[in-house]
Design brief:
- Two copies of one chain form a homodimer.
- Chain A is mostly helical and about 200 residues long.
- Chain A has eleven helices and no strands.
- The radius of gyration of chain A is 20 Å and the shape is elongated.
- The termini of chain A are far apart.
- The relative contact order of chain A is 0.08.
- The interface between A and B is large, with 62 and 62 residues.
- Chain A binds a DNA duplex (30 and 30 nucleotides) through helix 1, helix 2 and helix 3.
Chain lengths: ~200, ~200
DNA sequence: AATTTTATTGTACACGTGTATAGTATCTTT
DNA sequence: AAAGATACTATACACGTGTACAATAAAATT
């Protein structure tokens, strides 16, 4: 059996309505009722497709995240550089975020649920995991990779948080440089700070 | 002029009601109406004190965060160790989180707004800042301290996220060890991973 | 103790939420 | 093209939200 045309039509009009509303008001102020009025959809119908407004927004976030994954998984980036040097895969993250700036401004908004942040976290963390496994890196056997990758992935997100707070005004090139410099800081510094 | 007794009474009964409700249901399912019924407070009165249920919860979070800050600021921990070694200040974070486990389980819940996470982030980040300044560490002048500390602070929170996801079952002692091992990993490894 | 100040209550209103159900319209299948 | 399946609509209900305002109660001030 094929996908019902009615379903496609209503879902698309709901999604479109969200995009339109997002241009004039923040996500957390958009109600299901308003969305349905604009989409010319009965409110009861809405609930047979989405749980709430976040359910609709999540669709777009998933599209963006999968775009991020796709870019990262291009073979060129995975094989073309020697592992002795900092490879540029991660660098792509800043370009990606800048490209979808409007969405990331929503995701990092303090009124928005952690759910989207978690999605980001899991995505970046998976990259870390794969990178370690592909290069057959063996870490100190005492270190649990789950904790190591969580540490590393969230560190990157820390840069994004700061970037967001500065309204993404720092150029992506400088973000790349900052990341590389932080990564190449000597371990002696890390021991000195006691914290980092 | 002194603080009106009526105000104190109503605020305390609202806060108490929240604690009671939190024992049986998640924060995001607690309505202002329910809170007011239990607190025996008129709903209109509620809104002259708090904006919403989160406003009430935030009070507790602020108490907890200030407790965290206080513990960190005890002079003993700031002077008693040589900076050449990893100092144990940050180690306190795991004990602290474990102590207030119930609250952190709420804060890290995916349905809860980023606001509380940001509060945590800012707190830890301030520690990083102070630590760098107190020790008169000069980083590479090209590195912006704001990005460095955001990176470092959020990395720690990454460990907390993973810990939370495992329902805080990893013993605090092991969390301490994991952190120390991650921090003392050689920079050569970091260059190899390309990501971390 | 009397007066003044103000926090709280009770009530109302327009709106949003989530769910349910019967009737209608639209799609798919044969 | 007709039959069958099902998505959509219209409507209703109980509940929650945020705001407003006059009446009341309980504080602080004199």
């Amino acid at each position: 059996m094929k996908q019902d045309l009615r379903v496609i039509k209503t879902q698309e009009s709901i999604r479109q309505a969200l995009l339109i509303l997002l241009k004039t008001k923040p996500l957390d102020s958009i109600s299901v009722a308003e969305l349905c009025r604009l989409a010319k959809i009965n409110r009861g119908t809405f609930y047979s497709h989405y749980k709430d407004v976040h359910g609709v927004f999540k669709h777009y976030v998933e599209v963006i995240v999968s775009d991020f994954k796709k870019a990262y998984e291009q073979p060129y980036y995975r094989t073309g550089f020697r592992i002795q040097h900092i490879r540029p895969e991660m660098i792509k993250i800043f370009d990606h975020v800048k490209r979808y700036k409007k969405f990331y401004q929503i995701i990092f908004d303090e009124k928005i649920p952690l759910m989207y942040y978690n999605l980001l976290f899991d995505t970046v963390r998976t990259f870390m995991m794969e990178s370690i496994q592909e290069n057959h890196l063996k870490t100190d056997s005492e270190i649990q990779i789950e904790y190591l990758t969580s540490y590393q992935a969230n560190a990157i997100l820390g840069l994004l948080i700061e970037w967001y707070r500065r309204d993404f005004e720092t150029p992506t090139e400088e973000m790349n440089e900052q990341l590389i410099m932080i990564l190449s800081m000597s371990s002696s510094f890390r021991n000195q700070t006691s914290i980092s």
